[in-house]
Amino acid sequence: MTNQSPSRRLTAADFDQELLDLYDYYVHGNISKREFLDRAGKWAVGGLTAAVILGTLAPNYALAQQVSEDDPDIQGEDIVYESPNGTGEITAYLVRPAEINPDRPPAVVLVIHENRGLNPYIRDVVRRLGKAGFVAMGPDGLSSLGGYPGSDDEGREMQRSLDRDALLNDFFAGFEYLQAIEGTNGKVGATGFCYGGGVVSKLAVAYPEMAAGVPFYGAAPDSAQVAQVEAPLMIQLAALDQRINAMWPEFQKALEENDKRYEAHIYPGVNHGFHNDTTPRYDEEAAKLAERRMIAWFRTYLAG
User: In a 10 Å sphere around its CB, with 0-12 CB exposed, 13-18 middle and 19+ buried, how is residue 289 labelled?
Assistant: First the structure.
């Protein structure tokens, strides 16, 4: 890690790639916080401590607002839907365009969070899609535990404590809720990030009627299940994300063998989480390009 002016926002270029990989292992539960701090000690020089290094890599949600809650182009609210095969009542953030042409009602996009609950970054992604003209909804997978706690570290522990199948069913119930919501064209797509990217692929397997999917650096589905996918998929990957990218060749082979509609974009020189604009792993150029591609994909396949 290099010494930088406190007024300049840190980027991935300010950290050794080995340290960024170590942080990725930590946030995905592959090593404990204590192990991260012990191993990060080798970069603790010049007055830095391992704890300070961890703090610089953690999200800063003061940065997580590209679209404000009171933007005049959108209307947002927190709603509740039932997940009878999951954890019960689910709170979700639902955003609609402020003005809707009844002759051309909008399509719907389900937004699935990372492994830490519905944090401010994901809520902002929901607003961005609302501003782009979609009805968008981001469920909070931590609803049964009181919702996103305001801390990603705590949120990760909470999400890890949930039954995996029940949590997955909460998002499946969210998809079904959006299928029945009024004032749309009836087409539902999904995007998700990290854990949520993997859920998008599972949705595509479980719901052949899903109109389109855009998973960001998410786990690939079982290759034997790819034949069940009907939704056109845009797979967004980070070139430096060895953990997720190791799954891609087999996934791509299954997509090709089953003649599925897909595009894959592997963004050079960026890390897992490059779309998240609250951490140093954020890469503005790649993130904005990936988001433009996502919106274009949904406009193509979710049109009425």
Answer: middle
Go through 214-245 and write b for each residue having 16 or more CB atoms within 10 A of its CB, e for each that does not: bbbbbbbbebeebeebebbbbbbbbebbeebb
Domain for residue 6, yes or no?
no
3 state SS of 12: helix
Residue 110 lies in a domain: yes
pTM over 0.90: yes
What confidence tens digit (pLDDT) does each residue in 76-96 have? Answer: 999 999 999 999 999 999 999
Indicate if 52 and 142 belong to the same structural domain: no
**In Å, what is the CA distance from 185 to each residue of 102, 120, 123, 296?**
10, 28, 23, 17
Does the residue 3 lie in any domain? no
- Give me the domain span that covers residue 123: 66-301
Q: How many CB atoms lie within 10 A of CB 77?
A: 9
Q: Which two tokens stand for residue 159?
A: 């999400």
Burial 123-142 (b: 16+ CB within 10 A, else e): bbbbbbbbbbbbbbbbbbbb
In which residue ranges of the chain is pLDDT below 70?
Answer: 1-8, 304
| 54 and 152 part of one domain | no
The rounded distance, in Å, linking the Cα atoms of 194 and 114 is 5
1 within domain boundaries: no
Is 238 within 8 Å of 272 (Cβ atoms)?
yes
Q: How far apart are CA 133 and CA 136, in angstroms?
A: 9
